[in-house]
Amino acid sequence: MVRFLASINQQTMPVELCNLYLRGAEPSDHMRPDSLNLLRRHVTAIKIVAFAAFLFVLAPGLSHAADWHRYGNARFQYWVDIPPGFSAISEADNGDGGVSRSSDGRAELRVWGSYLLEDDFKNEVKGRVDLDVSDGWTIAYRKQGATWASWSGLKGDRVFYERAVPICDGAAAYFRIEYDKEQAKTFDPIVSRLVKSLKSGTCR
Fold it and tell me: Which of the two residues, 134 and 39, has the higher pLDDT score?
């Protein structure tokens, strides 16, 4: 296509005529056949370049979206997207969720559902945060609403981010992703996508 455009550019064609043709107007009946053919070649080239540019802009987004895959849990009826480069979920025997790992082994994603011990989502989250603190994690971020909770922590050169949402039958769904601190910028958009994707089914 580059050679084709170069051969056309070696010839000249008034911009006004190209614009006229692109707007759908018919060229003059008095135009020489060779000039008319040249005009049509210019317009075709313009359309090809425009379409190629459109695909160039669109393709990365499509590829990125296609690399994610959806995991659905039948037991607790929740769904979450699994990032590109991560293995399929290796589900636990009890069917509550499972583990996915990055191809380089440096990051781990766990997803699971569990019943609230005290039938209180807020207290359940507090208990889990307290467990992280007792396990040596420094909690760097924590926010909670009526239907969600997120917190993250640091320990040495490792970072974790955990998200919880209440689901049906007095249970909650979680994901927890852990990775090297030096990979934080890489994982920021991944965490954002995970947060948006964690959903539960409709309660009956």
Answer: 134
How many whole angstroms separate alpha carbon 175 and alpha carbon 149?
Answer: 11
Quick check: 178 and 156 in contact, CB under 8 A? no
Predicted local distance difference test score (pLDDT) of residue 54: 38
Q: Say how many domains are in the chain.
A: 2
> Do 170 and 107 sit in the same domain of this protein?
yes
Q: What's the domain range around 31?
A: 2-64
- 152 and 52 in a single domain? The answer is no
Same-domain status, 78 and 168: yes
- Name residues whose C-beta falls within 8 Å of residue 137's C-beta, 6 or more positions apart in sequence: 153, 154, 155, 160
DSSP H or E run through 145: strand 138-145
H helices present in 74-203, as ranges: 121-134, 184-197
Q: What torsion, rounded to 10 degrees, do the Cα atoms 89, 200, 184, 178 define?
A: -50
Radius of gyration of the chain (CA): 28
Question: Residue 21: what residue type?
Answer: Y
For 85, how many CA atoms within 13 A lie in the half-sphere containing its CB?
11
Tell me the CA distances in angstroms from 85 to 8, 25, 185, one per residue in order: 44, 51, 16
- Residue 90 CA to residue 110 CA, distance in Å, equals 10
8 A C-beta contact, residue 162 and residue 128: yes
Asked whether 87 and 47 are in contact (CB, 8 A), the reply is: no
Residue 118 has pLDDT above 90, yes or no: no
| Token pair for 127 | 């208990």
**Same-domain check for residues 172 and 79:** yes
